Amino acid sequence: MPEKLIRIRKCATCGIEFIARYSRSKYCSLPCRVAPERAKHNRRKQNPPIQCTVCGKEFYSSSSRAKYCSRKCWNEAVKTQKRRQPHIRPCDFCGKEFIVDKPYRFVAARFCSRKCASRWQKTQPHPDGGQRVQVSCAFCGKPVDRWQHEIGKYRLTFCNRQHKQLYNSQHTCDNTIIADRVWERDNHRCVLCNSWRGLLVHHVDGNHSHVILSNMITLCSKCHRSAHIALNNGSCTNGWKARPETFTKAMETQVNIKAYLDKLYESG
Asked: Which of 82, 96, 128, 156 lies at a C-alpha separation of 20 to 30 Å from 213?
């Protein structure tokens, strides 16, 4: 059995050698361990009193550079230093000065309002190289600026959300009545894949204002998406170009739709 290691140390206070119980032991007894703290406390009282810069209370310290009497006063002083004064800077679009009172916006804040930010964004070129195009609102006819890829051949454009809701409320009643007739005519099934899930009424020519039975057909969501790719000459609803095989399938879908309607109304 290995012999126990005996540590012989010299006390840091009185200099007497002693057997250390732990590897970090420095003092031979409790009075020797407390003696340095008492000496430090006595040195504090020998120095002149210092006034705390936060609460004004007098205290003693062994350091002549001490400023705070407690940790609480030190924390309060740090918080006061971190509080920055509100920044005043000009708007990058209109030049109007505005106040930035939140620290996390000191660097990022560039515009005085969302309106100026939106107007500035319209003056910037599109990252994909697109251009701004002026179109008219479908409800009031007011000119509206839009990106070229946002304008579809059969997509309606509105100047605000309220005009879009008003337009939809005026055209919903007639469309709903005719949509029920179209679903009944097609037996509530997609005319291409015979699915009964996610049914939609599709306008064959893409014009939503052309509401007649010969221009409307029942499709599922998948076939409806394919039909619109064919109407937009290979462009998806999000503006991206469809793959060649997807575009070929979309053109076949368009041909099948026209063949179905021709057969239906020639026989009728």
From this structure: 156
Amino acid of residue 71: R
Return the amino acid letter for 231: L
Secondary structure percentages of the chain, helix, strand, coil, to 5: 40, 15, 45
Q: Which long-range contacts (CB under 8 A, 24 or more apart) does 61-64 make?
A: none
In sequence order, what DSSP letters do the residues of 33-80 get, joined into one string? HHHHHHHHHHHHHHSPPEE-TTT--EE--SSTT---SSHHHHHHHHHH
| Cα–Cα distances in angstroms (integers) from residue 101 to residues 105, 111, 113, in the given order | 8, 14, 14
Dihedral sign (CA 179, 181, 182, 184):
positive
CA distance 208 to 187: 22
pLDDT tens, the chain, 268 aa long? 455 667 888 888 888 888 888 888 888 888 888 888 877 767 666 778 888 988 988 888 777 788 888 889 988 887 776 555 678 889 999 999 988 877 667 678 889 998 898 888 878 776 666 677 888 888 888 888 887 767 765 567 888 888 887 777 666 545 677 788 888 888 988 999 988 888 888 888 887 777 778 888 899 988 888 888 888 877 766 666 778 888 888 888 888 888 888 888 775 5
- Phi and psi at residue 263, in whole multiples of 5°? -65, -40
